[in-house]
Design brief:
It contains 9 helices and 13 strands. It is globular. The termini are far apart. The protein has 317 residues and is an alpha+beta fold. The protein has 2 domains: 140 residues, Aminopeptidase (3-Layer(aba) Sandwich), CATH 3.40.630; 145 residues, Gcn5-related N-acetyltransferase (GNAT) (Aminopeptidase, 3-Layer(aba) Sandwich).
């Protein structure tokens, strides 16, 4: 955590974490990212928008001062409009740091339009046709319904979600310790945000069996699709597509501004909407100390040797 003070007053906070690794399984290597960045979709500097540039500049200057050893800094999941996106290139130019920003996508649907306009932007084959088929198949298969925020204990919500996710292969191959850690993380996230009143769970039930779920966060008239999946045994009903559609309709009727698919560029998102916001990722290598320069030189040498002495038989043609 980098606290930036001005006149003995905290101006802002740059929330970061680091992980120690081994480069090529030999050299100590320290990677810095935003705090909890592997479990979040949006990252920010904690400061007044007017102070973000000053806080960012001071924080990055401290990192480059040599007070902390590090080799790689990754600042990512920065949605367009975030003031840090302007601050980082300005700092880099003054500090003579070369930046090659990587730009991804946050897909979203503007809900402040007639429903026919929203529906008309969806893929005819992937969404509209399959939704109609899904309804017909569900109607013929028995009784189906969508539950919204059932009065279940938090543990039951997490258990149901993990059970369905495991059927899709999520979590396969990981240790029981990591599996328990994820379960605790999921339970805590649900519990905390239920108490805040911003967490919503949606469940599709067919003949008494949960076949799909979706977890949604609500904040400032924007709904965020955090996570969800379906039981693969019921894939022929396209339950996730139908469930997402009903959720979107619900928030359109509630006059929300936006439905956000959050980070990630999974192909299915583009089937729902062509609209997206840019997701910025900045990668900075530490060239300010001898060890950092040595690591960069070693990586260049390693790549050169691989290209130069790669066996002819292994070259793809």
């Amino acid at each position: 955590m980098i606290f930036v003070k001005k006149d003995n007053t905290v101006l802002g906070l740059l929330p970061l974490m680091f992980r120690n690794e081994k480069r090529k399984n030999i050299f100590p290597y320290r990677r810095i990212k935003f705090l909890a960045s592997e479990n979040t979709d949006f990252n920010i500097v904690l400061a007044d928008p007017m102070d973000v540039e000053e806080v960012t500049t001071a924080g990055l200057n401290w990192l480059c001062s040599g007070a902390l050893r590090w080799e790689l800094l990754i600042l990512d999941d920065l949605v367009e409009g975030n003031p840090i996106i302007r601050a980082i290139p300005k700092w880099a130019e003054r500090s003579h740091v070369v930046l090659n920003p990587i730009i991804g996508k946050y897909y979203y649907i503007n809900l402040q339009r007639p429903w026919d306009d929203i529906w008309g932007e969806t893929s005819k084959k992937f969404i509209r046709k399959n939704i109609n088929v899904a309804r017909n198949r569900l109607d013929r298969s028995g009784c189906w319904q969508i539950l919204v925020n059932p009065f279940w204990e938090t543990k039951e919500i997490a258990d149901q979600a993990i059970k369905i996710s495991s059927l899709r292969g999520f979590g396969a191959g990981i240790s029981s310790l990591r599996r328990e850690a994820y379960k605790k993380f999921l339970t805590d996230v649900i519990d905390i945000n239920r108490r805040k009143g911003i967490f919503n769970s949606y469940w599709m039930i067919l003949n008494g069996t949960v076949i799909a779920y979706e977890f949604i966060f609500e904040q400032r008239e924007v709904c965020y699709a955090w996570t969800g999946t379906f039981n693969p045994e019921y894939a022929r009903y396209w339950p996730s597509r139908l469930l997402l559609l009903e959720i979107m309709k619900r928030y359109h009727e509630k006059r929300f501004k936006e439905f956000s698919f959050m980070r990630g560029e999974a192909e299915y998102k583009a089937k729902w909407t062509p609209n997206y916001k840019k997701n910025y990722r900045f990668i900075i290598k530490n060239k300010n100390d001898f060890y950092g320069k040595m690591i960069i030189s070693m990586e260049k040498l390693y790549k050169f040797l691989n290209r130069t002495y790669l066996p002819t038989s292994s070259i793809k043609r």
